[in-house]
Design a protein that fits this description.
The structure is a single chain. By secondary structure, the chain is of the alpha+beta class. It has two domains: 54 residues, no CATH class; 36 residues, no CATH class. It is 18% helix and 16% strand. The chain is built from three helices and three strands; from the N terminus they run αααβββ. The chain has a three-stranded antiparallel β-sheet with strand order 1-2-3, with no helix packed on it. A hairpin with a 5-residue loop joins strand 2 and strand 3. The chain is elongated and about 60 Å long. The model has no long low-confidence stretch (mean pLDDT 83).
Length: 126
């Protein structure tokens, strides 16, 4: 929603030169596990693909990217017991094409109990 202008001089993932070829191929194939990389070599699935040695270090990107999220507990969600006890809201916009009334944003309110929905069109986000 908001542009971030970050200054980072340590962009290792964008460099094509690494001292260890195993890590280079791991990055090129989107953090594919090393046994999968060796499968590519054994079955000649990629022309000229070298045999990859499993490094003794762990890749933080591989670990974080392959974690699974726990499922939501069944039957423990809280639902409203009366109208307007819980109201969900969302703001959408900036729309490139304005509405008939020249609005570029809209906001929604949904009552958790009755599921009644209100939509209000806004000309400005503020």
């Amino acid at each position: 929603m908001f542009p971030l202008r970050l200054q980072n001089d340590l962009s290792v993932a964008f460099k094509a030169v690494l001292s260890d070829q195993s890590w280079l191929w791991n990055l090129r194939f989107g953090h594919l596990r090393f046994s999968g990389l060796n499968l590519l070599h054994r079955n000649n699935m990629v022309n000229g693909f070298p045999l990859i040695e499993q490094p003794n270090k762990l890749c933080e990107g591989c670990i974080l990217g392959k974690q699974h999220r726990e499922s939501f507990p069944v039957g423990k969600s809280y639902r409203a017991r009366a109208p307007l006890e819980i109201v969900h809201s969302d703001l959408c916009g900036y729309m490139q094409t304005p509405s008939i009334g020249n609005s570029l944003y809209f906001i929604t309110f949904i009552d958790d109990y009755s599921r009644k929905t209100w939509v209000y069109f806004l000309k400005h986000k503020s």
